[in-house]
Amino acid sequence: MSSCKSETTNKNTKVATKPNIIFILADDLGYGDLGFNGQDKIKTPNIDKLAAKGMVFTNHYTGSTVCGPSRAVLMTGKHTGHSTVRGNPRWTASGTPVDLSEKDVTVAEELKRAGYATGIVGKWGLAENLSDGVPNKQGFDYFYGFNQHSPAHHYYPKSVFENETRVAIEGNDPQNKKGEHIHYLINEKATDFINNNHKKPFFLYLTYTIPHFELTILEEEKEQYKNLGWPKRKMIPGHYRHDEDGHITYAAMVSTMDRHIGNLIEELENLGVAENTLVIFSSDNGHEYDDLKNEFFNSNDDFKGHKRDLYEGGIHTPFVAYWPSKIKAGTKTNHISSFWDFLPTACELAGITPSDEIDGVSYLPTLLGNNEKQQKHDYLYWEFNERQGPIQAVRKGKWKAVKFKDKPIEIYNLNQDIGENNNLANVNPNKALELLYLINNSRTEHSEFPLVKKTQKQ
């Protein structure tokens, strides 16, 4: 790891005034679920408009292939070989959840010392123990939503947290899906945060739970997708209290989120702060809903795998950056970037240097069109350990390697084979050895996340 110094002293990248920063994170949304990436069934006009008026990153990667570690990477600028949280709550050696610690330095803490108002609305998922990991102890002035994973699985929760206080939602019944759908409350609180803080620099981390299982949305949202002749995918309620028709519900959930993002942009414009606000939209990992054996939405685009895989379908995420006064409209970049780059980017925007050692590289030069100033990663690294695990992966330039424990390394030329169908390890043994070295030398040991086969503790 290295400390990434700010380049704000360079006249080509300097930002005159500290911009507002909004990072919008969808939950389990696939790369191909958006119109600008080729989706032709689900309507996402507002996100597509951000893409048309902003910059699309075609080579952007999540922190992990499930939400907990992915979000930890986004917040701390450290990839899963170095981060505190490397797996979801129960997938630890002891069975005890691992949260962000007091020693972790988050994006919010960095921006707070630069004078930003900081808020998170939605799913945090990094404070299972409700202790040092809670957002108000990790640099956030304001929090509304879910500290823990399991409560975020339901859209009609009995309670959520507002700052460190548990707040009951009167009349909500998660089993029977009655009361107030949490997505709408999340959206209201996000709008309130902007209204309350727009007169000074602010950072809003807006973490929608859509379209994570369970699949449920108001009936009125589904109307646009009914009577289209779609085949019915019947969902069976269990832990997740799904609505019956999966395809219609999934599409309606994504479109509802899209509409609310459009409303949020409109609010920024009404307040007169849109020109000085960087809005980023992405997803925490690959999709889970679309059936890989019988794809309907083509959520993966051309990628292999989905959530819980380290193939492209699990970690290659949609990414749009919109900043009317700074980003040239309708641009695309193939710059290889990742969730751990957000922290140094935010720091550079705020005119400060990251205070901890990180793995990230600021992509601000790319956002501003200064490609010649853009520092590039030597390589990217991931590790993941659930039922299939442990699995490790690296990307170095056009090359991608995936390594399952006790199995030979797989390597792919992504420029020619984005679907990772043609393993070239046998025909290019020197490249396989080079990538295997990176896999074996890119992590620090973590007692709760050893790279050994394990089962989920109950």
TrEMBL record:
Gene3D superfamilies registered for this protein in UniProt: 3.30.1120.10, Alkaline Phosphatase, subunit A
Domain Sulfatase N-terminal: 19-352
Keyword Cell division attributed: no
InterPro entries registered for this protein in UniProt: Alkaline_phosphatase_core_sf, Sulfatase, Sulfatase_N
Keywords per UniProt: Hydrolase
Entry similarity comment: Belongs to the sulfatase family.
PANTHER family for the chain: ARYLSULFATASE FAMILY MEMBER, ENDO-4-O-SULFATASE
Official protein name in the record: Arylsulfatase
